[in-house]
Amino acid sequence: MSEQPQILIYEDADKAVDVRLDEGRETVWLTQRQMAELFDKDVRTVNEHVLNVYEEGELEREPTIRKFRIVRQEGSRQVMRAIEHYNLDVIISVGYRVKSQAGTRFRQWATRVLREHLIQGWTLHQQRFEANAQELEAAMALVRKAAHSPALDVSGSRGLVDIVARYAQTFLLLQRYDEGLLSDPDVQAGGQLPSLATARAALDELKAELIGRGEATDLFARDRSDGLASLLGNLDQSVFGEPAYPSIESKAAHLLYLVIKNHPFADGNKRSAAFLFVDFLHRNDRLLSSTGEPVINDVGLAALTLLVAESDPANKETMIRLIMNMLADDAASS
Q1: Which stretches make up the Fido domain (predicted)?
Q2: In sequence order, what are the beta bridge partners of 220?
Q3: Which among 267, 282, 325, 277 has a CA at the least distance from the CA of 302?
Q4: Is 321 within 8 Å of 255 (Cβ atoms)?
Q5: Helix (H, G, I), strand (E, B) or coil at 72
Q6: Phi, psi of 255 (to 5 degrees)
Q7: How far apart, in whole angstroms, are the C-alpha atoms of residue 62 and residue 55?
């Protein structure tokens, strides 16, 4: 079943016809009933001409017919049906066969509309390409800023280089798409977030281990108000009955970013964020790739955590997409 294209209204004299515009295939679509209204003929006449178009080999059926779901009034009920629609080639052929001036006017209108959309599409493509380049530059600016951080050691620098390489590769791959924008990658739907009690227990266990090694104080991962509870609640919310963050990658990326940026703890927010991030991936069987390798290693995670911490809040979406792309390489085969 085809996705619904954009609907335009064609008006001629005292009639108005809903026209489906398919920008991808550069054509428009009408049903037989709509053609009958357009040409002021009955549906049986239009159907006869359509059959002749195919029987005489003027056009092929498969590329010129698509089914779209439309709502129809059947008695007292409104029912959604999958109805055959015919493209502009068929419409023009039928128009010539019925010798309708209305068909000529419609062809002229459709040609003009398609030309306008092609021009607009080219303009949007250029704008998206420029936006993409600007977003890549913004990401690189974040990397340059993080590179000068006194907290970055040699191993962290290697992780930062890995992030740059992977982000640049993502950019180059996405440039091959017509949209041009850095977009969310292929992802794995779902993902179960930990409850507040589960997350709290895991953090307490980490805290005890770090204190035992002399690497943390009692302030580590201590809650500031209800920050962690609110954060987990927001990540688990729905919008119009659908998850606001519908994939494992989206949940993981936002979890890492928000714990770092929202500072829900008195101390150790970056380490807590990295721990909750890895714990979430582990609980959802996404920590390892299909080859058994970590989707992100310790050095890369440390550098990524620092990169998020150094980033401007205005670049939030850039960082989220970066994290998701780093996780999504293996999602399609999971």
Answers
A1: 198-325
A2: 267
A3: 277
A4: no
A5: strand
A6: -60, -50
A7: 13
d(CA 245, CA 237): 8
Q: Please check whether residue 136 is in contact with residue 171, taking contact to mean a CB–CB distance below 8 angstroms.
A: yes
CB burial of residue 275 (10 Å; 0-12, 13-18, 19+) = buried
pLDDT tens by residue, the chain, 334 residues = 444 556 665 666 555 566 676 655 567 788 898 888 878 888 999 999 999 989 998 888 888 898 887 776 667 777 777 889 988 888 888 887 877 677 667 766 766 666 565 445 444 444 555 555 565 556 556 655 655 566 555 455 445 445 554 544 444 433 433 343 445 567 888 999 999 999 999 999 999 988 998 988 999 999 999 999 999 999 998 877 888 999 999 999 999 999 999 999 999 999 999 999 999 999 999 988 777 878 877 766 777 787 788 888 887 887 888 788 778 754 444 4
- Alpha-carbon distance values, 265 to 67, 72, 203, 258, 313 (Å): 55, 57, 11, 12, 19
* DSSP, residue by residue, 171-194: HHHHTTSTT-S-------B---PP
User: What are the boundaries of each domain within the chain?
Assistant: 6-99, 124-179, 196-327
Tell me the CATH number for domain 196-327: 1.20.120
